[in-house]
């Protein structure tokens, strides 16, 4: 049996998830009407993207104006004091940007017993909640493979589409996409791809970015590239990963420092290879986002306390997007307002900027 790694991983400690707070059903990825709505041109203001999510928590269910004057004053004050400032000296930019995105809402976090309850006596998948996917790919190892490699929820799918729409409307579409081999990352990226203008950008599946192996007793069996292609996922079959799936599985005893270094090494090799100007997107895990944030800020891999690792989902909620831009001196700096946030009831995908710059 697995330790149920995510029960201790950062994702278990998210602010209230979208589906936990919503009683409205959402369409799946195949709903043409929803997809059309997602791609409808619209402009977004990102002026509040640097504000901390706690300024919204608890306020959205109050009667009266959606944002009280004192709350608005707090937000403006927070923005003025924020140590991260918007880009001003564009002349010093190299032209490269990196976007780090966490996977969307996990199905096993919302429905811990979903796998046992949704497989009927005939061995067929039958969802029992509208926030569950209508169907799932039939894997070689059967549905039990999803026990350690969970899919995302329907609201997770829609949130991923929103992020893709935000990238499109803010002209931040990636020319290169790297994803963790975890199915939740593959699905999140697949949802995002649906609303991009560029439909020819494929996923490069990189096992180096899978989360810390110390959380796992029973290792997940990931879908192969051939399986992903058979299920119509846009993956690059010609991409040669820096570490194979077997290489990563052999690191199950790695320390937190070794994990952070694994992510940093992979990012360095990719940045050394991908010298083209433009945007690169990495769809990974909360802990991986933190490791890559540290690397891009020039900070060494660190021995993160276990309690901090287990709470990482609080710092990088589902579908968090963190942007960095490269300067001409080859250093990277944070872009606080690269994309508009997703805010719904008491959920926000804003990262904790104080934490990621620690």
From TrEMBL:
Taxonomy, superkingdom: Eukaryota
Gene Ontology MF terms in the entry: phosphatase activity
UniProt-annotated stretches for the region Disordered: 1-33
Compositional bias (Low complexity): 11-33
PANTHER family: UBIQUITIN-ASSOCIATED AND SH3 DOMAIN-CONTAINING BA-RELATED
Name of the molecule in the record: Phosphoglycerate mutase family protein
């Amino acid at each position: 049996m697995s330790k149920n790694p995510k029960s201790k991983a950062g994702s278990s400690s998210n602010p209230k998830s979208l589906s936990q707070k919503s009683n409205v059903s959402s369409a799946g990825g195949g709903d043409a009407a929803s997809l059309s709505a997602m791609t409808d041109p619209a402009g977004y203001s990102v002026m509040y993207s640097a504000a901390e999510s706690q300024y919204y928590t608890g306020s959205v269910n109050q009667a009266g104006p959606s944002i009280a004057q004192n709350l608005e004053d707090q937000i403006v004050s927070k923005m003025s004091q924020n140590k991260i400032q918007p880009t001003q000296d564009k002349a010093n930019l190299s032209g490269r940007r990196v976007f780090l995105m966490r996977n969307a809402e996990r199905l096993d976090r919302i429905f811990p017993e979903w796998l046992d309850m949704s497989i009927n006596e005939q061995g067929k998948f039958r969802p029992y909640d509208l926030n569950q996917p209508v169907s799932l790919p039939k894997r070689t190892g059967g549905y039990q493979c999803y026990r350690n490699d969970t899919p995302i929820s329907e609201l997770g799918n829609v949130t991923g589409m929103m992020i893709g729409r935000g990238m499109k409307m803010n002209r931040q579409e990636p020319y290169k996409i790297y994803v963790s081999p975890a199915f939740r990352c593959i699905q999140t990226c697949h949802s995002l791809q649906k609303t991009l203008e560029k439909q020819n950008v494929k996923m490069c599946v990189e096992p180096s970015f899978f989360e810390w192996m110390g959380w796992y007793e029973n290792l997940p069996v990931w879908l192969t590239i051939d399986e992903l292609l058979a299920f119509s996922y846009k993956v690059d079959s010609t991409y040669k990963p820096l570490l194979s799936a077997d290489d990563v599985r052999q690191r199950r005893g790695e320390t937190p420092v070794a994990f952070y270094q694994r992510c940093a090494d992979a990012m360095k090799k990719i940045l050394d290879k991908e010298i083209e100007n433009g945007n690169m997107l990495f769809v990974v895990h909360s802990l991986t986002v933190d490791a890559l944030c540290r690397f891009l800020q020039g900070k060494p891999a660190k021995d993160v306390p276990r309690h901090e690792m287990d709470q990482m989902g609080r710092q990088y909620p589902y579908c968090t997007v963190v942007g960095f831009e490269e300067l001409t001196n080859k250093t990277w700096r944070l872009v606080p307002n690269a994309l508009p946030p997703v805010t719904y009831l008491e959920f926000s995908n804003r990262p904790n900027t104080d934490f990621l710059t620690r």
